[in-house]
C-alpha cells in the first residue's frame, strides 16, 4: 500500500477481499476465523458483544441498538452486512464507517495472518478464507483496537456456523425467524431455529421477537441447556401502540422495567416498530449488565439518530422512488403493508431483480398486489437470476401485459420513472428484490443528482460571467 492514496488503497483492499469466493464448507468458517484471530492475539476475547440473528430485521435492529447504546454514552462498534456504497460501512466505529487510513493500517497488520491461514487451508485441501470471513476478522480487530464498550455484531447467515460466532455475545438478539436460504437451512423452520439459536452463549440474556411455535420451543431448549435467560416479545417487551407519521411513526414501547410513550422512530412500517421494541429491550439488557438503566432523553436521541438505508428509503421525487431491500416473501409482506400505510400512491411501477438463491416466485407474488406494472431486470451480481428466467416467473404471476424486461438496472429505472410520470394521480416507483439492486439504484440516482448539481453550478457561473461582461463599459 506504500505510495497509494487512501482512496486507491481502499479500492485495492476491496478488490483483494471481494475477489475471494463464498464457500459451501460452512462448518469450517469459524475454525478459519478463529485461527486467524489466534495469530492476532485473540482480540475477540476482549469484546463485550450484542450478537444479532434472525431472518428479517437484523440490520435495522442492529443499527438501532448501536444508536441507542451510543446515546447512553457508550463507545460502539457495529458490524453489519451487506454494504451499499463502501465496504467500510460494514465496520463502523461510533456510528461512522471505519476511516480509510485506519483501514489501511488494519489491513497491513491483518493480511499476514490471513495469508497464513490461507496457506494452511490450501495445504489441507481446503479453500481460501471467504470474503466474509476476512471482513469478520477485520471488524473484530478494529473494535478491539478501538477499545469499544460494546460491539454490536450482526451475523452473516444463520448463527451456529457463522463466521461471527467466535464472539461471546452477552446479549443474544433473535429477530423474527422464517424459512429462507433453503440450500443452507435443512428441515424448514426447525433447521432455521436450530442454526440461529446457536449464537446463544452460556449465561447470556436472550431477547427474542415473537417466533413460530416450533422455533420458540427450540430456543427455550437451547437457552435451558446453556443457562441463558430468555426475554420474549409479548411477555417481557411489546409494542403497545403505534401511529404512522410523515417522519416515520410514533410508538409506545414496553420493556421489562417500564413503558415509554410517544417515542418517535424515524422509520416506516409496523415491522420497524417491532425492530425498535426488540432493540430497546436488547439495550436495556446490555445496560443492566453494566449497572446502568435506560434514560428517557438518551432513548429519544438514540431513536432519532437511527437510520436504515435501503429500507423503505425515498431516494428521489418527481416521481417518488422508494427502495427496499426485501429479499424474501416475509420481508415483502412487511414492505407491502408499510408501503400502503406510509405512501399515498394511486399507482406503483416496480423494478425487481432477485438473486438466484432466493424465492423469486414468492417475492413476485407478494409484490403483485401493490404493483400495477413490473419491470424485471438483472443486477451486476454474479448471483443474479438471469433476467429472462425472472421475466418468465413474472409473467406467470402478473400476466404478460403487466411485465416489461430491461437488460440493466439503469434502463429499468429510467423506464419505470417515465411510466410513473405518464400515469394519472400520484404514481410512485418501488425498487425491491435484492440488496444489490437497491445499491445500484441508489448509486445511479446519486450520480444523476451530482451531475445535475454540477450542471446547475456551471450554469450559474456562466450567467454570472455574462452579467459581469455586460456591466463593463465598452
From TrEMBL:
<comment type="similarity">
    <text>Belongs to the folylpolyglutamate synthase family.</text>
</comment>
<dbReference type="InterPro" id="IPR004101">
    <property type="entry name" value="Mur_ligase_C"/>
</dbReference>
<keyword id="KW-0067">ATP-binding</keyword>
<keyword id="KW-0547">Nucleotide-binding</keyword>
<dbReference type="InterPro" id="IPR001645">
    <property type="entry name" value="Folylpolyglutamate_synth"/>
</dbReference>
<dbReference type="GO" id="GO:0005524">
    <property type="term" value="F:ATP binding"/>
</dbReference>
<dbReference type="GO" id="GO:0005737">
    <property type="term" value="C:cytoplasm"/>
</dbReference>
<feature type="domain" description="Mur ligase C-terminal">
    <location>
        <begin position="310"/>
        <end position="434"/>
    </location>
</feature>
<dbReference type="GO" id="GO:0046872">
    <property type="term" value="F:metal ion binding"/>
</dbReference>
<dbReference type="InterPro" id="IPR013221">
    <property type="entry name" value="Mur_ligase_cen"/>
</dbReference>
<dbReference type="Pfam" id="PF08245">
    <property type="entry name" value="Mur_ligase_M"/>
</dbReference>
<dbReference type="GO" id="GO:0008841">
    <property type="term" value="F:dihydrofolate synthase activity"/>
</dbReference>
<keyword id="KW-0460">Magnesium</keyword>
<keyword id="KW-0479">Metal-binding</keyword>
<dbReference type="InterPro" id="IPR036615">
    <property type="entry name" value="Mur_ligase_C_dom_sf"/>
</dbReference>
<keyword id="KW-0436">Ligase</keyword>
<feature type="domain" description="Mur ligase central">
    <location>
        <begin position="141"/>
        <end position="283"/>
    </location>
</feature>
<dbReference type="GO" id="GO:0004326">
    <property type="term" value="F:tetrahydrofolylpolyglutamate synthase activity"/>
</dbReference>
<dbReference type="InterPro" id="IPR018109">
    <property type="entry name" value="Folylpolyglutamate_synth_CS"/>
</dbReference>
<feature type="region of interest" description="Disordered">
    <location>
        <begin position="449"/>
        <end position="474"/>
    </location>
</feature>
<dbReference type="Pfam" id="PF02875">
    <property type="entry name" value="Mur_ligase_C"/>
</dbReference>
<dbReference type="InterPro" id="IPR036565">
    <property type="entry name" value="Mur-like_cat_sf"/>
</dbReference>
<protein>
    <recommendedName>
        <fullName>tetrahydrofolate synthase</fullName>
        <ecNumber>6.3.2.17</ecNumber>
    </recommendedName>
</protein>
Amino acid at each position: 500500500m506504500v505510495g497509494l492514496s487512501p482512496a486507491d488503497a481502499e479500492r485495492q483492499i476491496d478488490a483483494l477481499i471481494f475477489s475471494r469466493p463464498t464457500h459451501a464448507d460452512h462448518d469450517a468458517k469459524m475454525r478459519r476465523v478463529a485461527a486467524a484471530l489466534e495469530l492476532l492475539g485473540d482480540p475477540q476475547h476482549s469484546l463485550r458483544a450484542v450478537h444479532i440473528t434472525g431472518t428479517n430485521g437484523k440490520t435495522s435492529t442492529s443499527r438501532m441498538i448501536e444508536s441507542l447504546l451510543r446515546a447512553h454514552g457508550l463507545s460502539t462498534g457495529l458490524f453489519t452486512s451487506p454494504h451499499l456504497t463502501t465496504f467500510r460501512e460494514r465496520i463502523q466505529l461510533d456510528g461512522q464507517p471505519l476511516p480509510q487510513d485506519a483501514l489501511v493500517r488494519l489491513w497491513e497488520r491483518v493480511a499476514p495472518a490471513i495469508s497464513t491461514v490461507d496457506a494452511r487451508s490450501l495445504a489441507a485441501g481446503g479453500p481460501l478464507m471467504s470474503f466474509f470471513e476476512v471482513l469478520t476478522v477485520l471488524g473484530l480487530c478494529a473494535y478491539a483496537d478501538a477499545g469499544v464498550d460494546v460491539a454490536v455484531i450482526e451475523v452473516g447467515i444463520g448463527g451456529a456456523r457463522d463466521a461471527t460466532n467466535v464472539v461471546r455475545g452477552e446479549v443474544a438478539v433473535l429477530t423474527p425467524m422464517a424459512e429462507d436460504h433453503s440450500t443452507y437451512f435443512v428441515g424448514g423452520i426447525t433447521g432455521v431455529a436450530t442454526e440461529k439459536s446457536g449464537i446463544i452463549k452460556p449465561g447470556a440474556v436472550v431477547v427474542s421477537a415473537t417466533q413460530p411455535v416450533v422455533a420458540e420451543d427450540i430456543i427455550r431448549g437451547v437457552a435451558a441447556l446453556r443457562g441463558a435467560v430468555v426475554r420474549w416479545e409479548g411477555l417481557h417487551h411489546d409494542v403497545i401502540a403505534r401511529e404512522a407519521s410523515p417522519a416515520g411513526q410514533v410508538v409506545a414501547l414496553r420493556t421489562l422495567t417500564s413503558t415509554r410513550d410517544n417515542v418517535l422512530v424515524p422509520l416506516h412500517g409496523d415491522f420497524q416498530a417491532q425492530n425498535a421494541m426488540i432493540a430497546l429491550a436488547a439495550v436495556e439488557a446490555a445496560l443492566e449488565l453494566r449497572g446502568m438503566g435506560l434514560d428517557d432523553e438518551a432513548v429519544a436521541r438514540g431513536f432519532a439518530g437511527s437510520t436504515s438505508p435501503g429500507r423503505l428509503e425515498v431516494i428521489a421525487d418527481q416521481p417518488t422512488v422508494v427502495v427496499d431491500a426485501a429479499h424474501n416473501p416475509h420481508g415483502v409482506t412487511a414492505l407491502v403493508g408499510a408501503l400502503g400505510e406510509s405512501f399515498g400512491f394511486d399507482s406503483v411501477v416496480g423494478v425487481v431483480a432477485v438473486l438466484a438463491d432466493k424465492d423469486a416466485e414468492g417475492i413476485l407474488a407478494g409484490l403483485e398486489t401493490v404493483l400495477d406494472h413490473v419491470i424485471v431486470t438483472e443486477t451486476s451480481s454474479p448471483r443474479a437470476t438471469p433476467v429472462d428466467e425472472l421475466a418468465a416467473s413474472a409473467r406467470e404471476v402478473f400476466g404478460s401485459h403487466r411485465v416489461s424486461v430491461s437488460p440493466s438496472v439503469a434502463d429499468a429505472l429510467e423506464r419505470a420513472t417515465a411510466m410513473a410520470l405518464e400515469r394519472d394521480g400520484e404514481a410512485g416507483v418501488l425498487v425491491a428484490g435484492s440488496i444489490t439492486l437497491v445499491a445500484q439504484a441508489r448509486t445511479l440516482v446519486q450520480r444523476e443528482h451530482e451531475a445535475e448539481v454540477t450542471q446547475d453550478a456551471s450554469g450559474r457561473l456562466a450567467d454570472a460571467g455574462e452579467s459581469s461582461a455586460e456591466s463593463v463599459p465598452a
